Amino acid sequence: MTDVNKLKTELTEIVAAANDLITLESARVQALGKKGKITALMKTLGGMDPEERKTTGAALNMLKDEIAELIATQERALKKQDLEQRLATETIDVSLPIRPESKGKIHPISHTMEELTAIFSSMGFSVAEGPDIEDDWHNFTALNFPPGHPAREMHDTFYLPDDPEEQGEAAKKLLRTHTSTVQIRAMQDKGAPIKIIVMGRTYRSDYDITHTPMFHQCEGLYIDKNVNMGHLKGCLMDFVRAYFEVDNLPVQFRPSFFPFTEPSAEMDIGCSRKDGGLKIGAGEDWLEILGCGMVHPNVIKNCGLDPDEYQGFAFGMGIERIAMLKYGIPDLRTFFESDVRWLDHYGFDPLDRPNRATGS
Ligand code: DAH
């Protein structure tokens, strides 16, 4: 028993003397490890008579628990001390001016996405996301493009090899050609009512001054029990006026066709084209800005909702296009050339507010 008491004094001192976490860990190994002092004493139990073995065994087990507890307490104290030291030394002076040499700029796409988020969230839309790699069902069939429908051909789709782990339309993988896919995913996941915008990359095999194989879209979806075309028009009118920062910006809706909306429309905003320049606002001309419509009952049905109970509107637009129009960027391809001079010219300062017109 005296050995146990002696060991207790010795180990308590070792633990107490450990004044950093590394030393404490070696103290733990010394005391409790497989080759540690307590284990060594445990091994002598076999040579004792039964009575002594019983009391010494019990005492050793108690010692083990006591030392483990001591180590845990010491560890907590050391960690706390460590944190306090760091908090005291790692201070940041938030009143320091911004470093003048900071040259980073926000890309117009990111900036426009922030503007869209600010405007639509002030109207109660939340942001939803979906994958870039999609399947045929989400990109086409669920959106009421039946297999073989000619509208599929217009999408210049990039197809990927079939996924051997899936079957049918789910096995047919592709890069999404539009963000409308997320309408399907969001309605399946969250049901109705739902009010979302989606912003992200989309892909089509096309390349010229107004097309790049990868581009960005913003999609909107609002489904509830009493949504009508008037809500669609009001929402989009408010949006274009806030985004282009032109009060009373004239708009017109032209009938159009999309498989996933009925009726479908394209929205134009007023503009004037004089001396080769384009000015957004009241003028003699119109500029197409987005596609929209009332969500087709088949789409609502395909997402497991009852189209007799729920209806709503959707819209979709190219983010590069609306950024080009607002900021006077002439060539779409330059968005993705990573030319620092271009970014310096068209980019935004990191502390710019995303949108001033919404008052939000
Ligand atoms: N998905 C369409 C496209 O890529 C854009 C679009 C049009 C989306 C009408 C919509 C909509 O949600 O209602 O051309």
Main sheet makeup:
8 strands, mixed
Structural class: alpha+beta
- The DSSP helix count reads 12
Order of helices and strands: HHHHHEEHHEHEEHEEEEHEHH
The CATH superfamily title of the largest domain? Bira Bifunctional Protein, Domain 2
- Mean pLDDT, as a whole number? 93
The CATH topology of the largest domain is what? BirA Bifunctional Protein, domain 2
Number of domains: 2
**Overall strand count:** 10
β-strand amount: 15-25%
Name the CATH architecture of the largest domain. 2-Layer Sandwich
Ligands bound to this protein structure:
3,4-dihydroxyphenylalanine
Low-confidence runs: none
Helix content: 40-55%
- CATH class (first level) name of the largest domain: Alpha Beta
Shape: elongated
The radius of gyration over CA amounts to 33 Å
Distance between the termini: 76 Å
Q: Descriptors for this entry?
A:
BirA Bifunctional Protein, domain 2; 12 helices; two-stranded antiparallel sheet; about 350 residues; binds 3,4-dihydroxyphenylalanine; 10 strands; alpha+beta; single chain; 2 domains
Describe this structure in words.
It is built from 12 helices and 10 strands. The chain is of the alpha+beta class. It starts with a helix and ends in a 14-residue tail after the last helix. Bound molecules: 3,4-dihydroxyphenylalanine. 3,4-dihydroxyphenylalanine binds next to β9 and β10.
